[in-house]
Structure formats: C-alpha cells, structure tokens
Amino acid sequence: MRHSPVFLLRLLYGAALLFFALNRFAGLLPLPVYEGAAAEFYNGLLASAYLMPLVASLQLFSGLALLTNRLVPLALVILAPVTVNILLFHLLLDPAHILPALGIAAGHLLLLLAYRRYYRGILSAQAPVKGTGPQAAILSTPSVH
Fold it and tell me: CB 3.0–4.6 Å: which of 14, 103, 119, 137 could bond 67 by disulfide?
C-alpha cells in the first residue's frame, strides 16, 4: 500500500510533536543549553512556569491530531505561533541550530498548503453574517456614523 507524501509528512510531523511534548512533560532528553541572549530568553520562558507547559500541551494536542487525522486544520492553526517562535528564536538568537527549526517550519508550511482549502473561510477579506432574525441583521449591517 502506497501512502501520499502528505500522509507521510503528517505522521512524521505528528510523531515529532508528540515526542517533544512528552519530552517536556517526562524529561526524556536533557533541556537544551544556550548561551548569551538565547539563554536569557529561554530561561525567561522557563521561569514563567506556565508558558513551556502550555507550548507542550499545544504540541501534544497537535501531534495527536496529526497522528489520528482528526482536527488537522485546527491543530496546524493552533501550532502556527509556536512554529514561528521556534524559527525566529533560532534565526535571531541561536543561528548555529537553525536547520532543525527550518525543517519544523518547512513541514508546517507544507502541511498548511496541503490543507489550504480548509482555511478559505477564515482568510476571507469580508465575512458577512448569515442568518435570520434581528441579531443577524444588526451584525451584518455596517454602521455609519
């Protein structure tokens, strides 16, 4: 049985997300060690006490969604800010390790492109409210002042 490249990328990306989320919660691998501004920034994220567990939770949800092929478009949207921050962190603060970040960003972008038809509604320039009743009329009528 042959699988499409999107199927394989979805599974690979989902497995990586699941691994990194579990690593954050279970400490499978040691935390990375950074120097200079990268260390200050990363230590600040860790010191917040909520942000890295939140990121790991988003990665866990997204990884499971990708692996089970459930809510994939939502998972990719939720994960987008995390991916952008990983890329910018390594681009600006830790360029020596940019290649894995580029791989993460490329995989995410390819999956976003593969699922692009699901984003048409949220990427509309205008989104009129459809429905009946006075609330729909109020919401869909632009106010002029």
Answer: 14
